[in-house]
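Field: COMPLEX_INPUT
Field: COMPONENT_COUNT = two
Field: RESIDUE_TOTAL = 1082
Field: MODE = joint
Values follow.
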Amino acid sequence: MLEVRNLVKHYRGVGAEPVRAVDGVSLSVAAGETIALYGPSGSGKTTLLLMAAMLLAPTSGEVLIGGREVSSFSEREASRFRLSELGFVHQSCDLMPGVSAIDNAALKLLGSMRLRQARREVDPLLGQLGLGERLRHRSETLSMGERQRVMIARALSSRPRLLLADEPTGSLDTQRGHEVLALLRELCRERGVACVLVSHDPMAAGYADRVFALRDGTLREGEVPGDEVAWMLARPGEEVPGH
Amino acid sequence: MKALNILALYRLRLRARLAQECLAILGIGAGVALLFASQLSSASLQSSVAALSRGIAGRATLQLLARDPHGFPQSVLARVRQIDGVRAAAPLLEADANASGPRGATSVQLIGADESLKALGGTLTRDSALAPFGGIGAIVLPAPLARRIGVVRFGQEATLALAGHTAEAPLYKQLTAAQIGPLISSPVALAPLSFAQEIAGLPGRVTRILVQSAPGAQGRVQAALRALAGGRLNVATIGYDEQLFAKAAAASNQSSTLFGTVAALVGFLFAFNAMLLTVPQRRRLIADLRREGYTPRTTIAVLLVDALALGGVSCVLGLALGEELSLHVLGSNPAFLSLAFALGSPHVVSLQSVALAVCGGMLAAIVAMLSPLRDVLARDPLAAIRPRAPTARTRAGVWSALAGLACLGAATLILLAAPDAAIPGMVLLLAALLLVLPLALGATLALARLLAGTVVNAVGHIATMELGAARARAIAIAATGATAVFGSVAIQGAHGDLLAGLRGATRELNAATDIWISPAGSYDLLKTAPFAARRRAELERLPGVRAVSLYRSGLLDYGSRRVLVIAPARASAPLLPSGQIVQGDARLAQERVRGGGWLVLSRAIAEERHLRVGDAFTLPSPRPESFRVAALSTNLGWAPGAVVMNADDYARAWNSADASAYSVLLAPGASPAAVAAELTRTLGPSSGLSVETSAHHTAAQLAVSHAALARLTQIATLIPIAAVLAMAAALGAMIWQRRPRLAKLRIEGFSRAALLGTIMLESVMLVGVGSLTGAIFGIYGQRLADRALSSVINFPVVHTLTVLPALRSLALVTVTALAILALPGALATRVSAALALGE
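Field: COMPLEX_OUTPUT
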């Protein structure tokens, strides 16, 4: 479903040397598959995610979604594609304040259908996510876990082919984190959605079919590191025992 | 917490919110500037009268005043000096004149005085020679006036046209600001008494005697002066002129007060909008302080330090801006008032004006800063950061709407029953507007949601969601637009109605004349300077002239009013401006006034004196006469009020056959311009009289009316400008702050165009609802202002429903705010998606 071929993103640095945020990354994610992408801050995770979402043009390389090369899309084409084919879950999960859970979840559908119909669409999804009783509650009255589930509902509402989740458990406690990750995997499998899970949280690996590590802009496929904390806190170039 | 620690905490927090703080300073500063400028411009005129009065009178406390420009015999002075308790008395002769020189002409008040005036210690005579020198009289002029007419050298002659003749007066010296202080801008020409009497053609006569009484003797002296006056002269305190002026300038002052109120509110809303940007931080601060164990008192102290710092800086900025604004935009324009009062153009910064503006600014800062006071005082230390229940919001909205309706009801009561309370009425109306606005906004949002549900487009949904989310800020922004459009529509509408009324009155007053011949000088637009009319027969014989009649008119100090008395010849047709009659039968009144012994009185004067149509009363004219009231009229455009009688009655009551104008009627087919030229040639250059066609005179009077109302135009222009800037700044800041959410929407797949559409739709709804509500209330406000102008001040007002101007104001404010907003809106939609991901 998602195929990234030799993707490169260089930024102009302070000195003469360019910053290689993403340096020749290639990967593919099949429909219904979930991959976890680990990496310390500044490793290029978000840059990779932005390029996959057509929000950042790569220096070179290709991004294919459903077999279509999308990195050369115009702004308008990219927007339309994101609206219908792509879902995004953020860490901050700040929903529209003052707006009900169901309307927040329906936001993405409003570009293609009327509100009533959009509500009908997301209603079962929210039920599936355990928010059946909280549909009419305003976003600020929801707990962080509930908000994150509304975000997932919004991301999946348009039946996307690709879901990009950026630190989806970042602001949740362990138990809520597990619940959210389990739901994500279950829904993605059920709906055949390719899911890229970017996280600091080692428990995400348990819900991914494959795990990748991104360091200094390059990707390495493998197991989750044993000493995750040391791995994540290691500075670029520093060796961590066992890696 | 110690005071020093509170200051340190303020400094630390300031770094994080410097931009918002600057915006708030700008907002409060703008409000203070508008308030201060309006105060300065009205206080300066009042101060001009006071300065001249005190500058002449010095230590004098009482005065004996003539009731007409002919004055009274100077011999009265000796009798005044004989009164027990009189320490000093000084005679004055004051006459309106037109002073001209090589560089131009200007209206001045010629003041003749003798050495005894110096004994009173007034500023004006401190450095003047009041004795004729070398047997030749001379005048002393303030330096700016001397320069304006080009008479600047010792001995250089100025031409003074007064009382229907001209005289040459050499300059003795120019007076500088160092010598006479604020009087430097007064339009006066000072001359030795005997010389002034000679050039005014009033030998041995004076118009005023200033009296300084011994300590504790004022009451006794006043009684003795009254006995001496015998009901034919006025006895008053020195501040009498100021009282008369205050009455005459009441309409102008009320408009300034209204302006000040609206301006202060716009400024406050500007600041409030800016302060709302920091509400989340302040709420967090309150919660932090309360959680850590600080008492509500300490928390309030911390917030008050914020408010004092913000208010202090804002006030300094506002005072500086206001000073500039008053000098360059809202300059004092005495216009019509200068026809009856000697007014300069001083710039007087009174302590009262500064105090009022500073208090307004500080109050705005404190109210804006303490807006989450309820959270500070709440039992729950974390109340400030807890979401408010929607039911509480709904309840607050209902109460607010009910309070608004109550205010609207009270304003309606004022409109119907107590129009003299127009200013409180306007304030109530403004309060009603602001209280009803949340309801209007809520209804609009509900409607927008309903409409958005019928179309397949996310723009409408997102816009309504965003607006519903930031309710307080949305209301504040809409309130800014509403206040501005309300002020603009109400003021502009009343301005238009008043102008239309004045136009009608002016045309009617000039309807019975084809050509006017009257003493030269702009002061004589009201035709109140008498002259000996000896050339009537000569003028009547000229070709093209059908008839020449004597028109009499003057200003009469009647209680606290300087009343305009108009007296056309009996044969004038029409004799009365029938369109201005507001009570009584116009036709019958015309017959009665023509017959004599009857007059028409402004309704405001009649109400003040408890007079009705048919009542008899004694007019305090130079020779008090009994008249009956034929009808009640408007004030004919003269704020203190007017009286209309026939010219013969006037001559009898003023004990003078002098006229103040020749009213010329043309023969059929005669050209006004050609006859006017012939009349000018016949009168010759030394007559001191000017000839102008009725059309020209009407146009000149209307131009002065426009100038007199210029302040209203400036107000109606300035308020929307301030509001547009305030709204654009608030909306811009709101959108800029929302960039992370916009970034998220971009990630979700919403295009830049859709996001810009959302921003613009939100702005249209906010500004549109605010402006529309403001326009509707503004039309109501116009009605209230019209009613006050016509019923209380008694102006001729033509009531109109100014829907078109209201729509124009509405469209102008909305479109301008949106146009200004488009740029930050477009920039905000270009936000990097990385912002949403916290990178």
